[in-house]
Amino acid sequence: MAEYSSILLEKAVDELSKLPGIGKKTALRLALHLLGEEKIKTEQLCKSLNDMRNNIVLCRRCYNISDEPLCSICSNPKRDENILCVVADMRDVLAIERTCSFNGLYHVLGGIINPIEGISPNDLRINELLERTKREEITEIILALPATIEGDTTNYYLSRVLKDFNGTITTIAKGISVGDALEYADEVTLGRSIANRIPYNKG
């Protein structure tokens, strides 16, 4: 006997269950919820997802997600353009912005060095970071990468390639537990870690 009475429902559940953290039971609940909603609401959801997938771009300056060539953070004249926070990906930007503790700009590397997963420095936006230090009037670079071995390795590598940078290189304070990604830190802890950042020591 088939698990579902509808092949269309089964296909929808299969697709929903591919999302992170969504199992088959949750996917079924979501699919049935959508099925019970007014048709216009489901169509609006589909349109929003399509618009997001087709129209979101990367900011030409910081490489964060954006609706325009220049993101709302980079184009905001009230942001401090002298301070640059280096993060692994766009989720870290969202996490830090939620703290309301940082008013500078960002640079999204697109990951961290991880030889096991085949991610080398050449796969990251490190050259673009170096170009920004030459082109923009940056006085401080904050290394806000995950508190992991890979994050520490990336921090060390960046400190070496930024050896000619005339400003200050700092890192977030150790309020973030070892092994944690920034997106999972609570806002108060992350905010304090940014506010109480310390000079980066190569060791």
| Count of helical regions | 7
Question: In whole angstroms, how far apart are the ends?
Answer: 63 Å
Q: Structural class from helices and strands? A: alpha/beta
Shape: elongated
CATH architecture of the largest domain: 3-Layer(aba) Sandwich
- The spatial strand order of the largest sheet comes to 4-3-5-6-7
How many domains? 2
Q: The biggest beta sheet, please? A: 5 strands, mixed
* Rg calc: 21 Å
| Level-1 CATH class name of the largest domain | Alpha Beta
Throw out a few tags for this protein.
203 residues; alpha/beta; Helicase, Ruva Protein, domain 3; Dna Topoisomerase Vi A Subunit, Chain: A, domain 2; 2 domains; two-stranded antiparallel ribbon; 7 helices; 7 strands; 11% strand; elongated
Question: Outline of this structure?
Answer:
The chain contains seven helices and seven strands, in the order αααβββαβαβαβαβ. It is of the alpha/beta class and 203 residues long.
Any overview of this molecule?
The structure is a single chain. By secondary structure, the protein is α/β, with parallel strands linked by helices. Helix 1 packs across helix 2 and helix 4 packs across helix 7. The longest helix has 17 residues. It has two domains: 45 residues, Helicase, Ruva Protein, domain 3; 122 residues, Dna Topoisomerase Vi A Subunit, Chain: A, domain 2. The termini are far apart. The protein is elongated, with a radius of gyration of 21 Å. The strands form two sheets. A five-stranded mixed β-sheet has the order 4-3-5-6-7. The mean pLDDT is 90.
